[in-house]
Amino acid sequence: MDFQDRHVIVTGGTGALGTALVGLLLNAGAQCHVPHSGAKAESFPHRDHPKLRLVPSGSLADEAAVAQLYESVPDLWASIHVAGGYAGGKIVDTDKAALMKLIEMNLLTSFLCSRAAVRVMQQRQAGGRIVNIAARPALEWRTGTGQTAYAASKAAVAALTAALAEEVVKDGILVNAVVPSTMDTEANRQAMPKANHANWPKVEEVAQTILFLASPDNQVTRGALVPVYGRS
Predict the structure, then answer these.
(1) pTM, whole model, 2 decimals?
(2) What is the DSSP letter of 106?
(3) Above 80 in pLDDT, residue 38?
(4) Per-residue pLDDT tens for 82-96?
């Protein structure tokens, strides 16, 4: 998959999945723009790559900050929204503030970044790709037991993806989402030490799926919610 000189924004690009994805994109020739808040930038393994641009940015839930980020990449080809958050908890233990925090981290950031990306891509009139990140409870609602607020926020991301895909296809913009189960990261291993980690999808494997959906090789897939569950 050739991304030579194609500009790609990756939110959440300094996290476990984001780091794997940015590595694949750079190897494929992409110009990667990774917004960050500063904490992980110093240790980011790709920080010295000539095609990487680490962009100090405000909150991705801030409409003005998101607009400024996307306006700085007028040749945008793809926007990939890895940024998000997780919190478990039964509904009786989840108050309005906790629900709204998850909606902000997952739905609002994906919405604002998608909105800004579409505006830039429509102005450029050269098509583009948008990839969101949902989660298994977004498709299999019963797996969201004990994490109802998180399941609802990710289900909203799935709905956003399908609706937006239909809205912008005539502009040559293909919108999709990957839907991971629990991924094999150090943080998840520490949180669930007794789980069968071998069955979890690896971040590199999930990143490969994202890479295809965001690539010019993807000519026909849109509105897809692609399960990436590994053997779990």
Answers:
(1) 0.96
(2) I
(3) no
(4) 999 999 999 999 999
Q: Please provide residue 75's backbone torsions phi and psi, each rounded to the nearest 5 degrees.
A: -100, 30
Q: Can you give the residue range of the structural domain that contains 117?
A: 7-228
**Residue 39's pLDDT is what?**
72
Pull the structure tokens for residue 212. 């295809």
Establish if 1 belongs to a structural domain: no
Q: Which residues pair with 128 in a beta bridge?
A: 173
Strand partners, 71: none
Distance between CA 144 and CA 225 in Å, rounded?
17
Residues 183 and 117: their CA atoms lie apart, in Å, by 27
How many domains is the chain partitioned into structurally? Answer: 1
> What token pair was written down for 141?
């609602």
Strands (E), 71-185: 76-81, 128-133, 173-180
Is 108 part of a structural domain of the chain?
Answer: yes
What 8-state DSSP symbol labels residue 105?
I
Task: Inform me whether the pLDDT recorded for 58 exceeds 80.
Answer: yes
Locate 150 and state its tokens: 């998180």
Q: What is the pLDDT of residue 124?
A: 96
Note whether residue 200 is domain-resident. Answer: yes
